[in-house]
Write a structure and sequence with these properties.
There is one protein chain. By secondary structure, this protein is mainly beta. It has one domain: Methylamine Dehydrogenase, Chain H (7 Propeller). The chain is about 5% helix and about 50% strand. The protein is built from 3 helices and 15 strands. The strands form 4 sheets. Strands 1-2-3-4 form a 4-stranded antiparallel β-sheet. Strands 5-6-7-8 form a 4-stranded antiparallel β-sheet. Strands 9-10-11-12 form a 4-stranded antiparallel β-sheet, with no helix packed on it. A hairpin with a 5-residue loop joins strand 7 and strand 8. The chain is globular, with a radius of gyration of 15 Å.
Length: about 180
Amino acid sequence: MLSGPSYGFYGPGAIASDGTHVWVANGGDVWVANRGTPANSVTELDASNGALVGIFKGPSYGFTLPDAIDSDGTNVWVASSYRNSVTELLASTGALVRVINATSYGFTLPDAIASDGTHVWVANSGDNSVTELNASTGAMVQVLSGSSYGFNVPAAIASDGTHVWVANSGDESITELTIS
């Protein structure tokens, strides 16, 4: 078992793996964050042996209390509902690529994120929408919103490159979208 501050685990709330790395979003426990511990971080582990590779601390990476994380092997995507932002990191080094802000991308409490290498899908629980980003450029492709898509407090999202599935915690349903 891997545990504790030596791994940078402070309220781990989300985890993702690309086969080479395991990425942990440390911000899921607001109580820990309010104690003054560094809950605003992402931990990178070696997937083969669990060794600590790095800890990336929030403010310099554009996230606060990161809620969700995913990796497509090239990039790591971190959603922060507290900041209404998505941070993109380079998977090979953890280097900051960009921070995408709510104002121009339609993020409203982004609670979940999924990437298939071509698209990045962000579930926004604050306004019952899903934002689609271009994975290579970070540009917004579209925002899908409201009852026409069946979104009701989207809380989790997954993609296989052909479909996107959105878990709606507001009415205990799943919305399936065809990417094409």
